[in-house]
Design goal:
Layout (H helix, E strand, L loop, with lengths): L2 H28 L10 E7 L4 E10 L2 E5 L7 E3 L4 E6 L2 E13 L2 E16 L2 E14 L2 H9 L24 E14 L2 E7 L4 H10 L4 H8 L8 H16 L2
Antiparallel strand pairs: 1-2, 1-5, 2-3, 3-4, 5-6, 6-7, 7-8, 8-9, 9-10
């Protein structure tokens, strides 16, 4: 990743609470739409000092958690650096530190981020990261390339949407998209790997991972990359872990 993109990403990390939040609100009001209401649910959280607390929680972004104590009117705000882990309803979340995410060939380094824990058993860790990702918008020539691939069953979506073929030649303009990626860690690959939805890379990685389970690997091989939504990948990896652990 180029130095100016990395510096910009790190700068945004520290300013997002005050600056980007205000800009987002102004943009929403200018467009005439109402901001989405924040929904708080019962849960508990553990701060960096190791002390656990109960309250009503709302995850705003990968770097902002709101917490309302019993009887409190205004919520407290916590950044990822202040938190170890937390639970909202039935969903568990953790804070990952110093990891990389690769979307359409663009590497972004995260100092830390709040992620949903989908799996943490059988030697496999699977997390969901939702937020603004650094991507490129395909140039017209790349759009034509994608559209021509529809006939072969390898459609990756419209221009600007993350997809495996979108950036093969890294042409087009730089921009941001709000999306969800999965992060996978296995004993054979301790560094977190990015599973980008609806990408050939995610398709190939899961097929290789499940090679020791021929039926599941065959099932994955028959799926088009466009079928690899975050929900589908979580489902497939849950099947893989259940078969390995016998649960």
């Amino acid at each position: 990743m180029s130095g100016h993109l990395l510096s910009w990403r790190l700068g945004r990390f520290f300013l997002c609470g005050a600056f980007c939040g205000a800009l987002g609100l102004l943009h929403t009001l200018a467009a005439g739409a109402k901001p989405e209401p924040r929904v708080f649910r019962p849960g508990h959280y553990r701060l960096a000092d190791g002390v656990s607390h109960a309250g009503s929680l709302c995850l705003v972004s990968d770097n902002e958690l709101l917490v309302k104590a019993d009887g409190a009117v205004e919520p407290q705000r916590f950044g990822a650096v202040q938190v170890q882990n937390f639970v909202i309803g039935a969903d568990s979340f953790a804070v990952l530190r110093k990891f990389d995410v690769v979307v359409n060939g663009v590497l972004t380094q995260y100092p830390c981020a709040m992620v949903r824990v989908h799996q943490a058993a059988g030697g496999l860790e699977l997390y969901g990261l939702q937020g603004t990702m650094d991507v490129y918008k395909a140039a017209p020539s790349s759009q034509a390339m994608m559209l021509s691939s529809v006939g072969t069953g390898m459609s990756y979506g419209v221009a600007g949407v993350a997809g495996g073929a979108l950036l093969q030649k890294k042409t087009g303009t730089y921009e941001e998209k709000v999306m969800t990626v999965l992060l996978l860690r296995t004993p054979a690959h301790p560094e977190l790997q990015t599973l980008q939805p609806q990408s050939k890379e995610a398709h190939d990685l899961l097929q290789a991972l499940t090679a020791d389970q021929p039926e599941l690997s065959k099932k994955i091989r028959r799926l088009f990359p466009s079928a690899f939504t975050p929900e589908k990948m979580v489902e497939l990896l849950a099947q893989y872990t259940a078969a390995k652990t016998g649960k």
